[in-house]
Amino acid sequence: MFYWLMKYVFIGPIVKAVFRPWIVGRRNVPASGAAIFASNHLSVSDSVFLPLMIDRPMSFLAKSDYFTGSGLKGWATRVFMKATGQIAIDRTGGKASEASLNTGLQVLGRGDLLGIYPEGTRSPDGKLYRGRTGLARMALEARVPVIPVVMVDTDAVMPIGRSIPRVGRVGMVIGEPLDFSRFQGMESDRYVLRSVTDEIMVALQRLGEQQYEDVYASSVKERAAQQQQQG
């Protein structure tokens, strides 16, 4: 009920009026059943605009930092994240990664839509980077299609480091579902997981025509931080 009120009564109408988001490929959203939406990641606002433009409820796996802030700002962020259907996960690796996988599988097990950013973090420069294989494992275990999504100009509206968005128009392109049923039962094979992940990233690159770099975005960010410290 809270999610519905925020999406259709309070937050949703205001966001649509201000940013006038457009969408291409709405017909590729399944009318029922579970599916994973694999999106490029340009801005924290990606997790707001995509669910807003899809009629069915959608959950995104979001880093737990957004849910643990203190003070009025922390409370407001926490309420906003919950209102937009986002689920807190720990991204530190190891057992935390396994817990994130299980959380995603629970959403899919209910027959719902789940949003995931295969790059694992926001792009630091607008390029598309190498995907993490957790998405592939989740898709194979849940036996659900993966739908590629390209967000457009969300980084112009709310770039990294900005807390208040600029007014501008954003969009999204939803591609045709990818079927990986041919790999059923092979979710423990790391070569299969890499192959599935790469196929998803190729679909994203073709859909959005972003420049692709076959390295992890997190590595690029770490390298940039080290250079800043040395400089």
Question: What would you say this structure looks like, in words?
Answer:
With 231 residues, this protein is an alpha/beta fold. The chain has eight helices and nine strands. β3 (58-63), α3 (71-83) and β4 form a beta-alpha-beta unit. α4 packs parallel to α5 (134-142). The relative contact order is 0.19. The mean pLDDT is 89. Keywords: Acyltransferase, Transferase.
Overview in brief:
This protein is 43% helix and 16% strand. By secondary structure, it is an alpha/beta fold.
| Uncertain runs | none
Structural class: alpha/beta
E-strand count = 9
End-to-end separation: 51 Å
Secondary-structure element order, as H and E? HEEHEHEHEEHEHEHEH
Q: Can you count the helices?
A: 8
Characterize the overall form.
globular
Overall pLDDT metric? 89
* Main beta-sheet annotation: 7 strands, mixed
Record the strand order, biggest sheet.
1-8-7-2-5-3-4
Strand composition percent: 15-25%
Task: List the keywords.
7-stranded mixed sheet; 43% helix; 231 residues; alpha/beta; 9 strands; two-stranded parallel sheet; 8 helices
Summarize the topology.
Elements: H1 2-19, E1 22-24, E2 35-39, H2 46-52, E3 58-63, H3 71-83, E4 86-89, H4 95-109, E5 113-116, E6 128-129, H5 134-142, E7 146-152, H6 154-157, E8 171-174, H7 190-208, E9 212-213, H8 217-230
Parallel strand pairs: 1-8, 2-5, 2-7, 3-4, 3-5, 6-9
Antiparallel strand pairs: 7-8
Helix pairs in contact: 4-5, 5-7
